[in-house]
Amino acid sequence: MNSFLRHATRSPHPFPSLARELQREMSQAMRSFDSAYHGPRGVYPPVNLSESEEGYVLTAELPGVSPEDIDVQIEGATVTLSGQRKVEYAAGDGVAIHRRERQSGNFRRAFELPAEIDLDRARASHKNGVLTLELPKSPALQPRQIEIETR
């Protein structure tokens, strides 16, 4: 009997080394996913972007981020959202953190929209940890009815 079969018949789990290897690979994959999501520049807030005939609405989930820590820039058809999420953790003697999933750090996201924005009518609001940007399209891009002259 070869060594694999001898080990398999003695152990209730015939593939313990395979299970450990699979667990190690899964942990590595999750670390890679986490790194890709948070990226080298910090924490990225999830966003939704919708378009209507009049303009765009962008919402970003920013729980725990105060409006003072958020910067919104619009240049032409590019909207840039950046800021900093500060998460405070209890520290000191006798304090042990068992799990830390909320990330602190800087974030920056840029969105290239299909049309330029009317900067004079753009609005931003922050409520319950959600930033909402109302971004009307430039008036030159709005559909217009043209009268037909008769001669």
| Helix and strand sequence | HHEEEEEEE
Give the oligomeric state.
single chain
Give the strand tally.
7
Can you tell me the number of structural domains?
Answer: 2
User: What's the total helix number?
Assistant: 2
What is the CA–CA distance across the termini?
A: 103 Å
CATH topology call of the largest domain: Immunoglobulin-like
Biggest beta sheet attributes = 4 strands, antiparallel
Low-pLDDT ranges: 35-42
Could you explain how this protein is built, in words?
The protein has helices at residues 3-10, 16-38, and strands at 47-51, 55-61, 70-75, 78-85, 105-112, 123-127, 130-136. The protein has 151 residues and is α+β, with helices and mostly antiparallel strands. It has two domains: 3-37; 42-141, Immunoglobulin-like. The strands form two sheets. It has a four-stranded antiparallel beta sheet with strand order 1-2-7-6, with no helix packed on it. A three-stranded antiparallel beta sheet has the order 3-4-5, with no helix packed on it. Strand 1 (47-51) and strand 2 form a beta hairpin. It is elongated and about 90 Å long. It starts with a helix and ends in a 15-residue tail after the last strand. 11% of the residues are buried. Residues 35-42 have low confidence and may be disordered.
Chain-wise SSE layout:
Elements: H1 3-10, H2 16-38, E1 47-51, E2 55-61, E3 70-75, E4 78-85, E5 105-112, E6 123-127, E7 130-136
Antiparallel strand pairs: 1-2, 2-7, 3-4, 4-5, 6-7
